[in-house]
Write a structure and sequence with these properties.
This protein is an all-alpha fold and 178 residues long. Helix 1 packs across helix 3 and helix 5 runs antiparallel to helix 6. It starts with a helix and ends with a helix.
């Protein structure tokens, strides 16, 4: 899988710090999981939109690689927020930690890779359609990471973009302007 457990855990830690800062600045004490998942799905749609002609049959524009990875990272921000929130609620309905959350994505990624290998002529559009239709957030992220792999993105691309976007989000939080 494109993200190692170490990178996943490091990014989740950075996300936890940012989320705490934003919650404190905005006076939010509780954020329902459904909202966080909705934010993930919005960013996911924005990410797929950047595929341009590879996703939209009416478009002949090329994929916007930088915009795609930035939107993927925005979706990842909210996925990590979702995981961190689940861990914070630990015991409410399931037991979870970052290791377990990472393994959940790895299992879904591996299952999806098995599926991809068994389907002839699977296009980026097919994967994107699977990503957006998938109900399970872990599987959706796993599929999105598979799509990123298909386009040649690396773990370092994700980490670098995440760090850049995380710094922007901290600046926004500090200024109070989102």
């Amino acid at each position: 899988m494109i993200l190692s457990e170490q990178a996943f855990i490091e990014l989740a830690g950075k996300q936890e710090v940012l989320d705490a800062k934003i919650k404190q600045a905005s006076g939010v004490t509780d954020l329902p999981l459904r909202r966080i998942e909705l934010y993930y799905r919005i960013e996911l749609a924005e990410c797929l939109n950047e595929l341009k002609g590879d996703f939209k049959h009416w478009s002949n524009k090329p994929m916007r690689r930088e915009a795609f990875i930035e939107e993927l990272v925005d979706a990842l921000h909210f996925y990590l927020s979702f995981v961190n929130h689940m861990i914070e609620m630990n015991g409410a309905f399931i037991e979870m930690d970052l290791h377990t959350a990472y393994l959940d994505v790895v299992v879904e990624h591996d299952l999806y890779q098995d599926y991809i290998c068994g389907v002839e002529n699977l296009t980026a559009w097919d994967i994107a359609a699977d990503v957006i239709r998938e109900d399970g957030i872990e599987r959706s992220l796993a599929m999105l990471l598979s799509l990123a792999e298909r386009y040649g993105f690396t773990e370092q691309d994700i980490i670098d973009t995440y760090n850049r976007k995380n710094a922007v989000n901290h600046d926004r939080s500090d200024s109070g302007v989102y």
